[in-house]
Design brief:
149 residues, three-stranded mixed sheet, 23% helix, binds copper (II) ion
């Protein structure tokens, strides 16, 4: 309730109106190792798309850390395997990994992070996967991102 009111107020205050409202999304990663979204649809009219990850839990990031990582569907396994090796200091993302189309830093409870994606990196009609690359979290924390008109 409070969050909705705050979001509406922010929208009104920004004066950026509807175009920008569609070009962003907020997703929550919880203490229960879940995301609250299974799909994200990016409108083709968006040149940029902002993803904000919020962690409404209380557990610290070394215990229940979450990030938001975007790759092509087939790259999930390779990216999470290499991310696990890269470790917490690298937010569980291998530095310079070109398979990673966008990612936030790793956050713990009561923290927030965001990333803005340039939609030129996406192809219409392709399926992309988003997930948390903290070791083993992607088994539960993953969803599909689509880019369409
Ligand atoms: Cu996670």
């Amino acid at each position: 309730m409070l969050r909705t009111a705050a979001a509406l107020a922010a929208l009104t205050l920004s004066g950026l109106a509807h175009a920008d409202a569609q070009c962003s999304v907020t997703i929550h990663g919880t203490d229960q190792m879940t995301y609250d979204l299974k799909t994200i649809a990016v409108p083709a009219s968006c040149k940029q798309f902002k993803v904000t990850l919020q962690h409404p839990g209380t557990l610290p990031k070394n215990v229940m850390g979450h990030n938001w990582v975007l790759t092509k569907k087939d790259d999930l396994k390779g990216v999470t395997d290499d991310g696990a090796k890269a470790g917490e200091n690298n937010d569980y993302v291998q530095p310079g990994d070109t398979r990673v189309l966008a990612h936030t830093k790793l956050i713990g409870g009561n923290e927030e992070a965001s990333v803005t994606l340039n939609t030129q990196t996406l192809k219409k009609g392709d399926d992309y996967v988003f997930f948390c690359s903290y070791p083993f979290h992607a088994t539960m924390m993953k969803g599909t991102l689509t880019f369409s008109g």
